[in-house]
Design goal:
Elements lengths: L2 H7 L8 H8 L3 H9 L6 E2 L5 E2 L2 H15 L4 H12 L9 H34 L11
Antiparallel strand pairs: 1-2
Helix pairs in contact: 1-4, 2-3, 4-5
Length: about 140
């Protein structure tokens, strides 16, 4: 689920458990536990040991999912998550997050340049390939 879809869903999360957060965000509880293991989405624990999430966690999860959909690694999402945790309005508000954006943009530009080169090579091969006539053999 994209960030905009998560925003449009307008979560009304007071306190929810992992399965409910996962259901609302369209991710598995296993994915949420993985994010927790990486320190991206720490959960508070209830007295019974269940994980407890709130509205802020929904914003963090939306930021992570949005960035992952754009091709960022989970490690690259960390500065954005930290920016949100620091109380900034968006995950891209902080210098560290902007630096990651710049690196990712340079990476995308390299991919585009490589794809243009590959396309050029394919076009060149098509232009220089000898044409042949296929004939049907009759038995």
């Amino acid at each position: 689920m994209s960030y905009s879809e998560l925003q449009q869903a307008r979560f009304s999360v007071a306190r929810v458990r992992i399965s409910e957060l996962g259901r609302r965000a369209g991710v598995s509880a296993r994915t949420l536990r993985h994010y927790e293991d990486l320190g991206l989405l720490p959960a508070r624990r209830r007295a019974n040991g269940y994980r407890d999430y709130d509205e802020h966690d929904v914003r963090v999860l939306a930021e992570i999912r949005s960035l992952v959909e754009l091709g960022f690694t989970l490690d690259e999402t960390r500065p954005f998550v930290e920016c949100l945790r620091a109380g900034h309005p968006t995950g891209a508000s902080c210098p560290a997050a902007l630096a990651v954006h710049r690196r990712k943009l340079a990476e995308v530009d390299e991919w585009i340049a490589r794809l243009h080169a590959v396309r050029g090579e394919i076009v060149a091969q098509m232009r220089t390939a000898p044409r042949c006539e296929f004939t049907e053999e009759r038995s």
